[in-house]
Write a structure and sequence with these properties.
Layout (H helix, E strand, L loop, with lengths): L1 H7 L1 E2 L5 E8 L27 E11 L5 H9 L3 E6 L3 H14 L1 H6 E8 L13 H6 L6 H7 L14 H10 L3 E6 L4 E3 L3 H11 L5 H4 L4 E5 L1 E4 L9 H9 L3 E3 L7 H4 L3 H6 L9 E5 L8 E5 L15 H11 L3 E5 L4 E4 L11 H22 L9
Parallel strand pairs: 3-4, 3-6, 4-5, 8-13, 9-14
Antiparallel strand pairs: 1-2, 2-5, 6-12, 7-14, 8-12, 9-10, 11-13
Length: about 375
Amino acid sequence: MQRLIEDSNLLDASGEYSIVNQLQDASSGHVMHPAQRGGRGKSPGPSEQKGTADVTLVTQTTLNHLGHIESLAGGWGGPLSVAIFATDLPDVVEAIIQLRTCSSQVRHNVSFHLVYPLRSKSLSGHVHPSGASYLKDGGCATLVERLSDLSRKTNYDHGDEFPVNLLRNVGRKNSRTQFVFVVDVDLKVNAGLRDAFVHFARVNSLFTQQYAEGPNEVFVVPAFEALETIQMPKDKYELVDLLSNNQARPFYTELCHKCHKHTDYETWLKAPVDGNRLEVLYHVTWKDPWEPFYFAHNSAPLYDERFRQYGFNRISQACELHVAGYTFAVLNNAFLIHRGLKLPSSFHAEKNRDLERNRQNFRQFKNELKSKYKDSPRRCY
């Protein structure tokens, strides 16, 4: 395992992180040899994929959030591409082994990829104080709990900058389907969402080659957050009940209301519920700082990897889609939900510093888009 990681790692564009693509491949169920990945110095990209008529859920995580993968895989029921920020390599490798051992959904549907700082120690040269032996102690029933206990660090407080957009791109580049759905690891999808979207895509001929030549639409999925004590809603009916009883609310209500208000929750909630069948309910013109979650063809622009830590990382990609000519179509019966309310107190101490740095990056990014899309009449504002 150590040799495979060391022989197959690539450098990211900044030269600060190592990347291991397809450490565990869901299609084969085996650790891949470097030769199967194309060798050192080559990373897969959307243009190299088979582009099957399906959709991959793409997410990024750290060791202490790997416990979400089992339930995410079970709720999705299809291909997942998971990029892990592996600052503790031995523990991450052991966690992947344990997750695959304990869950057939993980074993058959989830592909794992690694991103780690160059200064990280090798598998043989680093032992976590609670480490791999702790993960091995206990059965599958307590695995999620043990994964959560491995680290109590606040999000983004890793000692190394969390390269969130690099991780998203690694997940996307290793997807083998025409469409991708990029979400945060602690969000849950409503029951049957993947099957409903595949049906929607087939009915609307979204898997055709002509559609892939874009630019096109992205398909927005409204996001919510709910009290930790609630039972997760299976469909829109149950979600509406939670909202009416003040047990759920739109995503980021306290943290950044403007970041999701353009989803137009009021119109979405008033629309009739028709089971899980998906249709486009309405279109929204992108406005700063809207950062929706959406299904997109994997030929869409990648995320800008200069954005690390907290702030502007998803806004920047949505902004580029807008300038590039994409439209944003909101789906009727699809939703994401976060168990637990997002509160300002839950963030790391350096959040404001991260925001200010990424605000400066975003200003430069928007200026660069004017040159990249010279013929576009659209701007990010």
